[in-house]
Amino acid sequence: MAAPYAEHFLDLKRQIAETYPDFEARATQAWGDIINELDKMVATVSTQGSDYIPQVKFSELSSLSLEKVEEIRRIGTVVIKDVVDDAEARSWQDSLKEFVKVNPDIRGFPAGDMQFFELYWTKPQVQARSHPNLLAASAWLNKLYRDNGNGSLDGVDLSTPLTYADRFRIRHPGVQWDAHPPHIDGGAIERWEDTAFRTCFDDILTGQWRKHDPYALSGRLNARSSLYRRPNQATVFRTFQGWLAMSETEPHQGTLKVFPNVVLSNAYIILRPFFRPLVPIDSKDILDVKNWAYDISYADFPGILPRDGGFTGPRPTPETHPHLMLEKTMTSVPKVMPGDAVFWHCDVVHSVELEHTGKEDSAVMYIPAMPTTPMNKAYVEKQKESFLQGVSPPDFPKSPQKFAGNGEPVDFLSPIGLHAMGLPISV
Ligand SMILES: [Fe+2]
Questions:
Q1: Cross-referenced PANTHER family, in alphabetical order (predicted)?
Q2: What is the pLDDT at residue 109?
């Protein structure tokens, strides 16, 4: 039996094919070209490993060379060292461990040995998000985006970051973690379905994928990334997702892995639903472009999966997206120390390592970069109420949040941090 959304997916494909002039010919030309480029990229990335991911010091952000900034844009992921003092970051980890010990009603997973916590308003989180250096890093990342002259930027201020409250994890060594296979957050079928969001990928859909700028602002501002209001689906525009390390963590110790070329992964993933393989997926010739054909008659957006009344993904796998060669290209971020932060562009394919072979807990707080935009500001207003009332933020499932040791406005570490939460700066 066809999936209940099959007709909807087929319509969407047809609609896109009719919207973009000469779609079949241009998409087919681009598809071959992208596959070629992916092949070249794989060779470079797989030989360099974690060294391929740029690392910069927080203190150097304002004086980086243009080449370095372009490298960060191209790869889409950056490690920013020494955003926060080591001792302060470690103390946050200690406090969080204490917090979860004294508050038994906390939700998280895995059950029985909780390591990922459904908590948003603990004092260490409130402090970290309002740390002036973290907010300065956020503003710097926001400013990697640019006006592409394609619409109004009214109400947009890349220099003034806003806060998006998310959770934290304290991952134990030795425990396998399969909860986060390669995926992209911030919109699933919406990437194709929402007409505002889709404009972010116009250059890909017109076949001019090399012109695609993942840092073009206009399409992001009104993109609706949560058409189905699925819980856990962010409704805001985060320029970069990110985490702040509270522990020393190196590759194979449960760290983040990324696909390190955001133009190529976007181009391939956006065009993938319009092509199908002509040979079995396990054929040794599956990568040969001659074995793929343009076809919009099948009702599938590979990697987009139904969930909770909406959709999740994209979740590329070696089977659905073989040319990404995820086994070779998913690259662990280099070793981080407490107080270092990792940020990845909102379109970057990322995962969490299955294994943690280290000896220490691998602990991070999720803190993305979010600029001031009308949509984000509206969210922050609602999020502020959640904070003041001690409930989960609007994008997340409801879970208990009123605990001893929560942060309060007086705990914020900077006026800019209060502003980022929509709070008055004189508390
Ligand atoms: Fe994610």
A1: DUF1479 DOMAIN PROTEIN (AFU_ORTHOLOGUE AFUA_5G09280), UNCHARACTERIZED PROTEIN YBIU-RELATED
A2: 87
Cα of 44 from ligand 1 centre, angstroms: 25
Distance 225 CA to ligand 1 centre (A): 14
What value does the mean pLDDT take over residues 377-393?
A: 97
User: How many angstroms does the Cα of residue 352 sit away from the middle of ligand 1?
Assistant: 9
> What distance in angstroms lies between residue 239's CA and the mean position of ligand 1's atoms?
14
- Shortest CA distance to 128 belongs to which of 243, 240, 238? 243
> How much distance in Å is there from the Cα of 395 to the middle of ligand 1?
14
What pLDDT does residue 262 have? 98
Tokens coding 205: 């859909």
pLDDT (0 to 100) of residue 229: 81
Q: How far is the CA of 25 from the centre of ligand 1 (A)?
A: 34
Q: Please give the sequence-ordered ranges of beta strands (E in DSSP) within 42-109, or none if there are none.
A: 55-57, 77-81, 108-109
pLDDT in the model for residue 427? 55
CA of 186 to the centre of ligand 1 (A): 8
Strands 77-81 and 55-57: parallel
The domains located in the chain, with CATH, are: 6-420 (2.60.120.330)
Note the pLDDT of residue 2. Answer: 63
**Mean pLDDT score of the chain:** 95
| Eight-class DSSP state of 98 | H
Q: Distance from the CA of 334 to the center of ligand 1, in angstroms?
A: 18
What number is the average pLDDT over the span 81-88? 98
Nearest one of 294, 289, 284, 314 to 192, comparing CA atoms: 314
Cα(310) to ligand 1 centroid in Å equals: 17
Query: What confidence score (pLDDT) does residue 151 get?
Result: 81
Tell me how far the alpha carbon of residue 52 lies from the centroid of ligand 1, in angstroms: 21
Residue 19 Cα to ligand 1 middle (Å):
31
Query: Between the CA of residue 95 and those of 23, 343, 406, what are the distances in Å?
Result: 55, 24, 11
pLDDT digits (tens, 9 = 90+) for 279-314: 999 999 999 999 999 999 999 999 999 998 889 999
